[in-house]
Write a structure and sequence with these properties.
Helix content is about 45%, strand content about 15%. The chain is α/β, with parallel strands linked by helices. The chain has 2 domains: about 270 residues, Aldolase class I (TIM Barrel), CATH 3.20.20; about 60 residues. It binds iron/sulfur cluster. The site of iron/sulfur cluster has 10 residues, from loops. Its cofactor is [4Fe-4S] cluster.
Length: about 350
Amino acid sequence: MTQYQFQQGPIRPPSEADSLLIRTTQGCPWNKCKFCTLFEGMEFAIRPVEEIKKDIWAAKAFYKNRKFETCFLQDGDSFTMDTEDLLDVLNTLKQAFPELKQISSYGRAQSMTKKSPEEMKAICDAGLNMLYCGMESGSIDVLKLMKKGITPKSILKSTEFAKQAGMKMMTFIILGLGGKEYSAQHVEETAALLNQINPDEIRILSLAVKPGTELDELVQNGEFTPLSEREMLEEQYQLISKLNSVTGNYGNYQGINLLMELNGQLPEDKAKFLATIDRFNMMSENDQNNFILGRRIHYYAALKDMDNQLMYDSVQRELNRIQKQNADELDNVFYQLRQRMI
Ligand code: SF4
């Protein structure tokens, strides 16, 4: 190993693109969710604290005078570390990078609720002041179906712990995660839980079923019916409509989402979000298909891009070609195109 090598994990949240990445754990301590392949084949491990500290100083030497204000602790769950070890890592980080203002990590409800409120407070005071929570759904049925290994109760408890400790929180929700079978519960109970938690930020993702996953098997067996693009948008409309006590940021930042312009602040932008979805709903069926295809083949970033006649015509030619070959299968084509994006 040369002087400047340090470990990097395979993932980080998109919002941490400019952050210092330090790996405290390897893989996911659960690794059983039916839709997830993030850490496929990787055994979970908590890295020895001395190794992590060595990495911090190696990163310091590697980046020389670069100043970082944010740091993300990889991989799946830093809260599985002994509190004393985590505090040791956080203190070392602050020594090496004194300009850090935010240190963040994924945290599973199970590991956070094993910490006492005093431990959570000490962790936050030592610098880990931002939590990424992969809640995905507030519905017990959907969480069970997806084998998430968490319940709405444990999610609520862990997020209360984090908030009381002073941590900021970003919560991820996956549209379509209940399929057609549980769509109503998914929306209703997710909105209810989000209203209770009131996270600082909500990030929306749209389900794309990865081939080879347990979820894909359910789809093949007819036990899970994926939502179409329009149905996922309807879920989002209902979700936004039902968010009545959320006063945080709401965002569709991932390319897998259809309407990337649904970003802003709740409750101020709620009417604007709903009006944007209404705008899509009021378009002709052909224009809706044109837009969906244009998003999935990377022509459009937002609805307004359809005003570009050249772009519109190019997408329309491709749409006509697909419809000629698969007249009744357009939703299936969109489904497959979305699969290619993950
Ligand atoms: S907890 Fe997160 S990382 Fe782990 S398997 Fe589930 S979705 Fe994947």
